[in-house]
Amino acid sequence: MTDVSLSDLKAFALVARHRGFQKAADALGVSRSSLSHALKGLERQLGVRLLHRTTRSVAVTADGEQLLQRLVPLLRELDDVLDAVSHGQDELVGTLRINANRGGARWLLRHAVPIFHQRHPRVALDLVAEGQLVDIVGEGFDAGVRLAESVPKDMVSVPFGGDIRFVAVAAPGYVEAFGTPATPTDLMAHRCIRQRLPSGKRYRWEFEKGTQQLALDVPGMLSLDDNDLMVEAAADGLGVAFVPESFARPALDSGALVLLLEDWTPASPGLCLYYASYRQVPAPLKAFIAVVRETTQSRDQPGSPTSFD
Fold first, then answer.
1. What angle do CA 152, 303, 202 make, to 5 degrees?
2. CB 92 within 8 A of CB 287
3. CATH number attached to the domain at 6-69
4. Are 273 and 306 in contact (CB under 8 A)?
5. Which of 270, 289, 276, 275 lies closest to 147 in space, CA to CA?
6. What is the rounded distance in angstroms from the CA atom of residue 241 to the CA atom of residue 230?
């Protein structure tokens, strides 16, 4: 397959990322028809179908996914090599792409990114904040950020930001009107502000005390998908919310909210930066990991802002 064009391989990776031809063609500065023709030629050379095409969408086939898994890291490493050659070896250059939830992105922007940019000004950071878990390798990311419990088992993880604690909170007026739950199961008789996950499912509230563990699909007439909004709704007396303590802390300190079931909500492992264990770690990512570790070690704030997005 030595006659396969590198430009065609890059075009395939771009079409796969955008899940369509038009945006990829715009990025490459070519017409949609010429890009489609090039991809068909690549498929003929490889002898496999890489893309499922319809009039409305483009999807990657199983063979295409297999190629993409190996191709994207190689293209990224090639770009890094070429950048290093063109700018010299003394200074890191290139692009570092990281996929994160909003809480993780917020922590990195506040604590790690300023230091990283100061030390490595020629490395562009592409930080994508979204709620859904993605295949970071297949989607062209160098690393991802998620809660420790959500990191895939075949990935290397670097904890940062300290532990996280989810807490049940309500406004004093709500507690006065509806009472204080003594155990998590008492919440089944309360008005709860439920959380809608990016997948569309509702988050089951998880409690732990000693050897007892509970995961409850609590009742409620209000569902939200944002921790800040859940805190505001609880402070307005609309019900009981279950959020990371860091989001509720200002309202707790001001008295707008009170803690409920405090002995049922211990801290648990928080956020991790993670990356594929089976590929070579690019130099910009190594440098970013060093900054994240350094920043985490220098901070003694286990409740750093995070989010279950």
1. 55
2. yes
3. 1.10.10.10
4. no
5. 270
6. 6
The residue count of the chain comes to: 309
Q: Fold for 91-160+270-298, please state it.
A: D-Maltodextrin-Binding Protein; domain 2 (3.40.190)
The Cα-based distances of 81 to 84, 94, 173, 213, 302 in angstroms read 5, 9, 61, 50, 38
Give the CA count within 13 Å in the CB-facing half-sphere of 191. 16
pLDDT tens digits for 16-30? 887 888 888 887 888
- What six digits make up the tokens of 156? 């290397």
pLDDT single digits (tens) 68-77:
888 877 777 7
Distance CA 299, CA 108 (A): 13
Domain 166-264 fold: D-Maltodextrin-Binding Protein; domain 2 (3.40.190)
Neighbour count for residue 275 (Cβ, 10 Å): 22
Q: Is 172 strand, coil or helix?
A: helix
56: Cβ contacts below 8 Å, ≥ 6 apart: none
Query: CA dist 285 to 48, 58, 253, 275, 289, Å?
Result: 33, 31, 38, 9, 6
Closest CA to 196 of 233, 171, 236: 233
Q: Is 99 helix (H, G, I), strand (E, B) or coil?
A: strand
pTM to 2 decimals? 0.62
